[in-house]
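Predict structure. Chain length: 590.
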Amino acid sequence: MAFDGVTIANVVSELKQELMGGRVYKIAQPEDDELLLTIKTNDGQRRLFISAGASLPLIYLTENNKPSPATAPNFCMLLRKHLQNGRIVDVSQPGLERIIRIDVEHLDEMGDLCRKTLIVEIMGKHSNIIFCDSEDRIIDSIKRVSAAVSSVREVLPGKSYFVAETQDKLDALTTDYDTFYQTVSAKPQPLFKAVYGSFTGISPILAQELCYRAGLDGETATAAFGEADYYKLYLEFEKLIETITEEHFAPCIAYDGKKPVEFAAIPLTLYENGQNLISCESMSSLLETYYAEKNALTRIHQKSADLRRIVQTALERNVKKYDLQIRQMQDTEKREKYRIYGELLNTYGYSAKPGDKSIEVINYYTNEPMTIPLDETLSATDNAKKYFEKYNKMKRTYEALTELTQEVKTEIDHLESVSAALDIAVQEDDLVEIKEELIESGYIRRRDFNQKGKKGNVNKKPKITSNPFHYISSDGFHIYVGKNNFQNDELTFQFATGNDWWFHAKGMPGSHVIVKSEGVEELPDRTFEEAARLAAFYSKGRGADKVEIDYIQKKHVKKPSGGKPGFVVYYTNYSMMAAGDIEGIELIEQ
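Prediction complete.
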């Protein structure tokens, strides 16, 4: 799943076909590290999405729009000033570097024709979008990089732009056979690693594909191959370069069942036997399809980082407290022994002599002999009193700890349920409701500021627009899944009626799943099975092969007085085992 130089070459080929001669109509910056360019061409309007996100850098053509902030960031305003209505005159890629240069001609303030370049670097955590003048001097960038951050290259206004050579790799486009053979064969490592480690733009999956096409085992060390083998490999390498230079790309995705495992700009023949290979119309459609969900989840994970940290810190603190309380409770397990010691000393203590360190008596509870240690400085009566004092102290400790451990265990269960809710959040509105729950639970202080920065109404609650997941079973029954504890309570005690069915993963945090019975007395088995799969998927056990699911009619589910959000009790239920696989269950878009 590498966004390699060959993929970039495919994207560049598409951009040249679609955008050359087009005019930059709109420029938006939906996120801090994203751009969305709307370009008018003779064939209509095109949108170019660019992301320099450290975890998921991307560039592709799309038909989808994204909402932008009310106030445009400075970098966006700068691009609008220089590139608005500019004409795209060239799209290029230096070698097989993961870099795209978009040259734009525009008129400056004096009416003179100028050229500027938008440089997109798709390089993992070093990804960036850099805006340069006609002499490749940096005007600004979406991420500024100072010398304190990188000793290799500064990316700051006024600095000259250059491609940093951080890896000792050769240009695949200009490599001949002798160079290929000498370079690859000299590396003492598996063949496919030697290939992708020697040439710019070649990813591990492409290197494995080349070895496969040449009939060679890419996992075998380079020393095991002769010159004839390297020549066969070079011929496949040469075909790849020809595909790139002639722009004969065939983007595809390899699937393992229904799960995408790899993609490339050329057919991945090594997957044809074991997996499905699906061709795509364009690399842009491939990237948008492949990364859309992953990009959304990455964004949500980033935006929920503060909430996760708060929950994790509170959870660790409560777990430590709980463990300590359990150890303290274990120390009180001897309390009954001390009570019996005291009672037996009151009964048989008369036989103890002054200075005795122990006494042998018959335990009238078991009719067995028992040895009771004594403090030789005290009388038998005082020893009995001492044992009763120990018993009473441990009894009080046990009773207090029993209540405290239950409170802490309830808090741990609640925090784990919040953590599970963060894992299934799919949009920012879901995080708003989770944050509200943490505020009401006392983990976050409510801070509400108006636009002028002055403190506003601290009791004002945010508007909640998040809704539960809504599915349709194969038999046509509506199934609802809570995304967090507030939604779980609302679904179970406000939305569901008495004869609706309620599902939940047994003994672990998870969503409440409600199946609307619609007056039907007995639901189809398939609907029960699909609801159970949803309960397994939206629980802490989603990665397990099987999860035990409790299910019962809603009328038997009760909310205990003072219970935490999402916490319920029930005393009779059915159970089934279900896998956390929800493939094939129709999701109704909200």
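Summary: The first helix runs from residue 5 to 19.
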